[in-house]
Amino acid sequence: MHDTTLTALAAGLAAGEFSSRELTQALLARIERLDGELNSFITLTAEQALEAADQADAARAAGNAGPLTGVPLALKDLFCTEGVRTSAGSKMLDTFVAPYDATVVEKLKAAGTVSLGKTNMDEFAMGSSNENSFYGAVHNPWHRNAVPGGSSGGSAAAVAAGLVPAAMGTDTGGSIRQPAAFCGITGLKPTYGRVSRYGIIAYASSLDQAGPMARTAEDCARLLTAIAGHDLRDSTSVARGVPDYTQELDAPLAGLRIGLPREYFGEGLDPAVERAVREAIGVFETLGATLREVSLPHTHYAIPAYYVIAPAEASSNLARYDGVRFGHRCDAPADLTDLYKRSRAEGFGEEVKRRILMGTHTLSEGFFDAYYKKAQQVRRLIRQDFLDAFDEVDVLMGPTSPTPAFDLGAKKDPVSMYLQDIYTIAINLAGIPGISVPAGFVGGRPVGLQILGTHFAEARLLNVAHQFQQATDWHLRRPAIAEETL
Amino acid sequence: MQWETVIGLEVHVQLATKSKIFSGASTAFGAEPNSQACAVDLGLPGVLPVLNEQAVAMAVQFGLGIHAEIPEVSVFDRKNYFYPDLPKGYQTSQMYHPIVGPGEVEITLEDGSTKAVRVHHAHLEEDAGKSLHETFADGRGHAMTGIDLNRAGTPLLEIVSEPDMRSAREAAAYLKAIHSIVTYLGISDGNMAEGSMRCDVNVSVRPRGQASFGTRAEIKNVNSFRFVERAIEFEVERQIELLEDGGEVIQETRLFDPERDETRSMRTKEQANDYRYFPCPDLLPVVLDRAYVDHLRDTLPELPAAKRARFQDELGLSAYDAGVLSASREMAEYFEAVKEVCGDAKLAANWVQGELSGALNREGLPIQDSPVSATQLGELVSRVMDDTINGKAAKQVFQALWNGEGQSADEVIEAKGLKQVTDSGAIEAMIDQVIADSPAQVAQYRDAEPDKRGKMIGYFVGQVMKASRGTANPQQVNALLKEKLDALC
Amino acid sequence: MALEHADVLRAAHLARLGLDDDEAAHYLDDLGHILTMVDQLQSLDTEGVAPLAHPLETTQRLRADEVTESDQRERFQRCAPAVEQGLYLVPRVVE
């Protein structure tokens, strides 16, 4: 049961081949047995999961089942879940039991899905390797010494290892796509505003977006249909109808215009990764698509702009963790300033502190124009690059990451870590959607192909990714751990 | 040296919305601590703000009320600082693109003259919670402060004036004008005791004739008209003394202590704050449709300045009466209702400012809590006008209505038999009786010089009125008495 | 724009992050590298480019003025570190 897609499991449930309780129990047992090697979960919610599975089975028996009823999945520990610890991978929230559900969680519950637990992540979603978690690093299912990517590393590893058919992630600068690429799964970052951010612990509000991580584009399409939509509680969510994203999966790609950004195939790209990606892109030609080179001239400025905007927003978003209403509070504070300084110094990890300091500095008097305002101007130029490109082509393609998964502990210097996100970060600045699909291997480690579309072109991206997955089998390759049966 | 005072005010007005500016929690005053602080107000992880349309409408109404520019786009920014009553570690405010642009408020000075005070802008923001310094203790016996976040997220309109005021009186007049505008508009209850209106005062002095401003001090959180005057008076004196002694005013924040009647420096424990304003990424720019603004303009109620002018020009009231009667919306509405019922503006004005205001002041009641309704008072005035009762009886009727001794003037007049006696036969009979009962007084009258008699007639009038229990028409009594007494001479 | 030790301490204070001297020195080094990377922005001419705060240039939607929340103090205070009589407790604030 574990080694199959969400779509196949949903079909099995619908056909009565197994119950949601059986499926849930089987996966919980796998997690218990195998996750020790991976550390992909922070919190398992077996009891609630079985309860939800029973409800799903009862709903099905009563004839009230929807397309996702009874399907198990996992949630990145950044989504608030009522009555369940929601840690954001931080000591700061180690004891925080959220008193409410995020909108995405509400929607997934309403669709009848069964959450097995909360997955590991870089603290407050800040990181590209999942090494910044208070709960320890996550290991890549393909190679235990390699990182799974970040920040949604636990979600990616759990799906790749067959512990869950799908998991929810969030993506602020590549946090869905890059771990999806590193773990050989499919991950979609929707258009900013497509999915409600309400109840998702904020890192950088103008960049954060939740999305599905699963084995196939088809699975992602089913999940996006369930979680997308306007939310009255999120002013930045967009009032726009939600199509059934599975409807256009089978549209033929003949005549599809694919743009290859020159800047995404330049210096810094691992030649082996480039070969794999170009080969994958070649598949589309056989499907009737046309290729042309395009330019995104401001690509080079995306990382600098991001490392002004994201830390600035984060420095403000994380000010609420002050030891007063929730979260870590230091022992015996001498006075108010001591309460703040020690609670925050003890509660936050190093990378979080680094970004808070960075954001505080760039917003402070005398620096605002040179950094924040400048970065916002550059942000407009970066978005314009994409809009111009989409005047000429339907989708853009390139590598998700310049290298395959690197080894744990390999990137000690923050800047070299940041540069990993060169192909993913601009997408968040522009607010466009992007999907990473498995497209080969380098040295036994998966390589991701990134497909980008203009705002709200999710249906098109999923269609393009699905057609690729009909023509290739990279997404069906499994690491050894996923082959293990109990 | 002659000194000139320069004052600017930042007035914070709590808007009278039902729910908070960014959440659906109630704004009602006086609830149990933290019972009206919802997830958004508490800044729980993951929550997001959604803007209250009524707060926007009220801010725009204020802008229109002071003839301000209403920019098409306004933007919320975050003002970042740590304080326990500020749950998110930032206050959502408007730094760069406020909802209300430059406008003007007309103030009326003691001598009845008016002056325009320019408003720089007004912006929307969220209020903070409250710190309660009663003694709490942690496990080690250290004193603790309790935080109540019920007020956190209450919408505030901060109205920032230009430094246009030149005296404490002008500043108080400005504050009163703002108070009357916001209460007229119904966008705030204006209750200063509950903190619905608070102000920060910027004060500086300069030698008269000097063009540049002196260094200013900011007096924080002054919460009554009287305190504003007193705080400024103290501060001006302090600054002048300082300068005349060769000292310097330093730019600082001060607190007014009403008990000691002085301002004092808030010890600046640390380096100047740096609020790191930046546009709030959780909120989008607020864009106001022209049609929407026009609609609000068309439905704006008549404001105090216009009302005052109309009371003078159309109703013929004096400048003073017009000023008093238009000072608050409740007063104006009451007066207009009385006038509507009785049809005479001047009589209505006299009664509202005389008998009614006197009684209200004695009992310390605001006019909206008056036991005598405007309709009741209007009917009472009508009965005076149509001679049903005389002025003296009218006061009795008013008192009876005040005490709840009847539903209407007519009912009281009937029950107490206060209907004025105008039947000259009946009055003559009472006069004859009084004359018969007062031989000594009649003799004195007769012996007096004719020019002294006028004064002596008062005694007889009093007796007749007493005999009629106040109901005889005093003019008639006077005329008939004079006639009869003079006939005896 | 070179970063100085004092800048780090100032940012740490504004952000209420307790740092000892060693940590401050460590962050000075890190932030220095990051700022060098960020300073690439300065080479780009952005004259006349309007800053972009949100990727979708849409406008704020307004909420009807209705009270939709009820008292959930007990639930919200379950995760609070120090509460008494319904109030959140902090070390005495001196005004």
Would you mind describing this structure in some detail?
The complex is a heterotrimer of chains A (486), B (489) and C (95). Chain A has a single domain, classed as Amidase signature (AS) domain (Amidase signature (AS) enzymes, Alpha-Beta Complex), CATH 3.90.1300.10. Helix content of chain A is 39%, strand content 13%. Chain A is built from 16 helices and 11 strands. In chain A, α2 packs antiparallel against α3 and α9 packs across α12. The radius of gyration of chain A is 21 Å and the shape is globular. Chain B has 489 residues and is an alpha+beta fold. Chain B starts with a strand and ends with a helix. Chain C has a domain of 44 residues: Glu-tRNAGln amidotransferase C subunit, N-terminal domain (Histone, subunit A, Orthogonal Bundle), CATH 1.10.20.60. Chain C has a two-stranded antiparallel sheet with strand order 2-3. Chains A and C meet through α9, α10, α11, α12 and α13 of A and α1, α2 and β3 of C. Chain C: InterPro entries: Asp/Glu-ADT_sf_sub_c, GatC. Chain C: Belongs to the GatC family. Chain C: One of its GO terms (molecular function) is transferase activity. Chain C: This is Aspartyl/glutamyl-tRNA(Asn/Gln) amidotransferase subunit C.
How do you describe this structure in short?
The complex is a heterotrimer of chains A (486), B (489) and C (95). Chain B has 489 residues and is of the alpha+beta class.
- Mean pLDDT of chain C equals 94
Report the end-to-end length of chain B measured between terminal Cα atoms. Answer: 74 Å
Strand content of chain B: 15-25%
Q: Tell me the helix content of chain B.
A: 40-55%
Largest sheet of chain C: 2 strands, antiparallel
Largest interface chains and counts: A-C, 75 and 52 residues
Family (chain A): Belongs to the amidase family. GatA subfamily.
Organism (chain A): Halomonas ventosae
GO cellular component, one term (chain A): glutamyl-tRNA(Gln) amidotransferase complex
Enzyme class (chain A): ligase
